Amino acid sequence: MEGFGTFTGPDGATYRGAWVADRKHGYGAKHYANGDYYEGTWRRNAQEGQGRYVWRNGNQYIGEWRAGVISGRGVLIWANGNRYDGLWEGGVPKGSGVFTWPDGSCYVGTWSRAGGVCGTFYPPAAAASSALSSNRKRSSSVDAAPAPPSSTLAAAAAAAARISTASAAAAAAAEKRKAGLPRICIWESDGEAGDITCDIVDALEASMLYRDGSLRARCSPALQRTRSSRFWFSPAESKKPGQMISKGHRNYELMLNLQLGISYSVGKTASLPMRELTLPDFDPREKFWTRFPPEGSKVTPPHQSPEFRWKDYCPMVFRHLRKLFSVDPADYMLAICGNDALRELSSPGKSGSIFYLTQDDRFMIKTVKKSEVKVLIRMLHSYYQHVCRYHNTLVTKFYGVHCVKPIGGQKVRFIVMGNLFCSEYRIHRRFDLKGSSHGRTTDKVDGEIDETTTLKDLDLDFVFHLQRYWYKKLLEQITRDCEFLESEGIMDYSLLVGIHFRDDNSATKMGLPSAIASPKFSGKRESFQSGGGFFEYDIDRVLDGQKPMSRLGANMPARAEHASRRSEFEPLVLTGGGFLTPNQSSGSHEVILFFGIIDILQDYDISKKLEHAYKSLQVDPNSISAVDPKLYSRRFQDFIGRVFIEDDG
């Protein structure tokens, strides 16, 4: 069996999806004979990657799988409304997680494989609402809240005991799993939810795969081939940008404060019922201070840092934005506030901002000036309407705005946003493109440039060929986004572009080690349209178990062709940014592109007007970045139209 097809076994179980060498491999859905259902990715006959398993009694798991077992990050939802969001290993909870009851109460803690759990219980929404109602004053300080009733505390203790018992039972059940049996127990429970077991393989497959208590996968020689270092690299070998923030780092306490504050903010808003947004939610005065003493308070946990104050801006709006951008609250909290430390990046620009990355690369935290916070809050309502209307928007995705004020220290304001380069693909080259030319080159010599260096307009020596569909979609969305930014008086933004070269020859030509490139591009692609937009995937990459989906600005296939710049000041181009012409003699490369519009919080204020006046006396006014929003938008769109061209192949 090879390709796409449906197989029905003698017991009535049915699988419909991708096959390689008689094995389920790729994306597929399976209806089990007992009524269970799984839909997701497979690898060599076992669940691998993202998948959704639904039991016939209504329980379901949505998340990551490894070698046919629940492992990684995922959520287990019981039919009675209970749910566990967190980390898994070998079919049992292990690591940070959140257990939530139907009444809205939740337990945030850390699970061990042996069944132990420690954490904090948060009361249901009704108790949380009454505790916060007397303190819900704009720009006021929340120092304390009424203590939860003794019944709530008793419930918390009982909840912790139930969770610990269930976790221990699950761990024991997993350890006692009998070799050769097609079902395993994931979570045991004496309550109404009942035990949760899973058909990892059906009886027919078990007879083929299990021998003497060990799993033996039969594969074709093509799937058993050795992946040489020529084409493959381990993610651990790739150079991750940034410095790990550990104890002793100058910003270690700031990181702890960020994690404590965000954990508190997400937990507090999650305990309140979701409601429709109103105009007061966007009010610049919709901000709340909370005090974090080291000994803790009735609403904050004890911690080892000096006392600090924490400010939340428009929390309900950003809760809706996180939901709109498909950011799960538990994932958000675990990525930023979990056991892993953040990584600090040096700023590639002149702003002096400090960037922090989560260990999974999904979220980026940036320190910002007071003026930038004011701009974002001022345009927040228009921003929300724009991203709701255009799901393919390329503007930065914002998840939260906060402020930390240590006692006796300076305020640190920061925003949480999505990381454009969060991908299993390695980013070999990155460019910050504005469409201007004055000062738009890196200050590093060739020997110092590596894959973490952010290059600029005059360093760009490629034009990117896109398929007709993607090219049209890109120009349409760039126009919409620029019109939005222009209407808000925003300028000085950039298109951040990341390039992944798909073959080792391209990497070698770029001065990169050949071992960091991905498999050679096969050219076999399929595409389809759905309600969420247009997607494309490379068949070989799907069968190899890698994420296939492409969307505007992420995982986009393209052809990068070397280009030469005729002049820095081409008279036929209004931008003064030069003119790129394809250089066919230098060849082209199959690439994967990631890009988005960043730095959208600078308006054309008095400082930028003075900068424009001063620099205009020295250089061509059209070559500088500081110009009025209307001219900036026109120049930016013109530049993008020359860097990205329609593929005529």
Automatic annotation (TrEMBL):
The protein's GO terms of the molecular function aspect are: 1-phosphatidylinositol-4-phosphate 5-kinase activity; ATP binding
Tell me which residues make up the PIPK domain: 250-644
Under InterPro entries, the record lists:
MORN (IPR003409), PIno-4-P-5_kinase_pln (IPR017163), PInositol-4-P-4/5-kinase_C_sf (IPR027483), PInositol-4-P-4/5-kinase_core (IPR002498), PInositol-4-P-5-kinase_N (IPR027484), PInositol-4/5-P-5/4-kinase (IPR023610)
This entry's Enzyme Commission designation comes to 2.7.1.68
Keyword Membrane among UniProt keywords? no
GO CC annotations?
Answer: plasma membrane
Q: Which GO terms describe its biological process?
A: phosphatidylinositol phosphate biosynthetic process
CDD domains referenced in this protein's UniProt entry, alphabetically: PIPKc_AtPIP5K_like
List the keywords (alphabetical): ATP-binding, Kinase, Nucleotide-binding, Repeat, Transferase
Q: Tell me the first and last residues of the signal peptide.
A: none
Q: Which domain of life is it from?
A: Eukaryota
Listed Pfam families: MORN, PIP5K
Q: What is this protein called?
A: 1-phosphatidylinositol-4-phosphate 5-kinase
